[in-house]
Amino acid sequence: MRKAPSRWSLVALLGPAYLWLALFGFLPLLIMLYFSFLSDVPLGNRTVHLTLENYARFFSRGFYSRLTLDSLVMGAYTTLGCLLLGYPLAYALARYVQGRWQTALFLLIIVPFWSNSLIRLYSWIIVLGKGGIVSALLSRLGIPLEDGLLFTYPAIIIGLVHAYLPYMVLTIYVALDRIDTSLLEAAASLGARPWRTFLRVIWPLSLPGVLAGVILVFIPAIGSFVEPRLLGGPAGTMLGTIIEDQFVQVFNWPLGAALSFILLLIVILIMALSARLLGLATWDRGQEAGHG
Amino acid sequence: MTTRLKSLTCVGLILVLWLLAACAPVPGAAPTTSESGEGAAVRELHVLNWQGYGSDEPWAIEQFEQAHNARVIHDYFNSEDELLTKLRTSPGKYDVVLPNIAYIPPAIQDGLLQPIDVSRLAVWSKLPERFQTLPEIVHEGEVYGVPWAWGATSLVYNTELYPEGFDSLNVLWDPAYAGQVGFEDNYEDAVIFAALALGLENPSQPEDLDAVRAKLEALMPNVRAFWQSEDEFNRLFSSGEISLGVYWSGSTSRAQTVFGLPIAFVIPQEGAIGWIDAWSIPADAPNPELAYAWIDFMSSPEFYVEWDRVAGAPVPANPESLAQMPEDSFTNTVFGDPSVVEKLAFITYTPPEVREQWIELWQEVKAGAK
């Protein structure tokens, strides 16, 4: 049995990280929460008062909720894209590729992300733009797309999927790699065909990794503003870009903060709801297994 | 490697990726320059301006530093609101700033600027009376800004694709040019351009915002991309993503002289947006004497004419500088005709409540552009 650590060593282990989080993560967030209830930014000789107006504005104007929906849909497409590309990749890496090749393929996924994200986006601008590689390829294939994909909705999704794919691949890989191969042998010896083994054994066991990946991709993707702004053109106005405008362009931090916290609240609600649904799902499976 | 170790490695990699993503720079965040002086005798002058807008020409900085035994340090902003933000959040940091005159009244109101003793400036007496008495720069008999340069934001097009040129702002709305337009992502200019295209009265402060909204909504199908900075516009234009749009006069001049882009700038029959930039001194500037010297230097023909020659400049407020510019310079060809000024809707001070409406209107239009 493992010996429980003393109280002091526990404090020493947890303390630095939580102190850091409290000082540099939670405190600034609290200040922003306070700002979101102010009538103006409290700098210079301004008089400010507490108000709910910033939150009321979200509900009084239809386009804020429309933009929120747009942002959620954008996050969903990104997550779906990452899942569709990432799962097969992680599966192949975990089950069929070993040794040096595995390391090399992992590096191919990771290394581009050591570069600056703006560099990656500007490369996409060249690739997707007018006369870029993508439009040339598509016109070869008989799909006329003279203007390229740049400054369209798909361009945003392409940029976001590229940005978040590694999170999905790595989390799913971890889950798949942990699956005991004897379980698969057992399934085979009981007569299960490969696809049945996948559906009944591999997929359920990889679900925790899939879920972690979905969360890691979905949450930052909803609030993203760099990719929509640089790749989306007129299609790129999202709640994230409007929040950025409030902070950078028009100096309305209170409204920007209020919009951010509304988005945060929506994300928390979605997560809580899906956690509940998943909890029920695993409970069902547990029941099933118990009866079987 | 054991499975557990491998998993740990993966988790570590994920964390590293998160950190990298969190550290990625935000576009629009201005680079800041800060250096400490070497000798104690060297005074520092902290300038706050747009990047690439004359004051950071290296030859000019060298000239000024040698003449005044000073060190010039620049910081930049990407929008007038950001300029105000920087003045509010960093009191005592800047010695001299270049706001658009429409933003001087809110800066005065917030106590961010100090009155300027115009008798200490050589350039002041040379400025035309209409510049000395601009309502935005004079407050309770005191002067808070020295007009330096003015120019226009107007229609531009690719001269290779449209050799016959355009004379109407409404060409931006023409379905023949769908997906060709590069439009400025700026609520103020968007509202005024729509008012100009509609022929509304007093386009700098249009009354009928519903008509403005409808006009901007009708523009969206023609817009290929929005731009916010000179770099962004030049990239869009040179890569052929856009072939016409709206642009700043000084930037167009630079695009021609420095980058050799086939671009023409016209003041269409409906008019265009005019703006005036003025040097101001922040309330708690550490080195105001140096700021006075700087304003005179920036306004002198020695600096201004050379700036226009090597890089391209907007119209100088100092008539002496204008007189020394060559006949065929961008400034003289576009703004040489005195009637051009009559066609400009100058950006004026807009009260915060009205600006709020404009901001929301523009965001709503952009949100509906999908």
UniProtKB/TrEMBL annotation, chain A:
Transmembrane segments: 12-37, 72-93, 105-129, 149-176, 197-222, 255-278
Gene Ontology biological process terms in this record: transmembrane transport
Keyword Ribonucleoprotein attributed: no
Subcellular location: Cell membrane
Domain ABC transmembrane type-1: 68-274
Keywords assigned by UniProt, alphabetized: Cell membrane, Membrane, Transmembrane, Transmembrane helix, Transport
Pfam families to which the protein is assigned, alphabetical: BPD_transp_1
Highest taxon above the source species: Bacteria
Keyword Protein biosynthesis (UniProt): no
Major subcellular site: membrane
Membrane topology classification: Multi-pass membrane protein
GO cellular component: plasma membrane
Entry similarity comment: Belongs to the binding-protein-dependent transport system permease family. CysTW subfamily.
Protein name: ABC transporter permease
Species the sequence originates in: Litorilinea aerophila
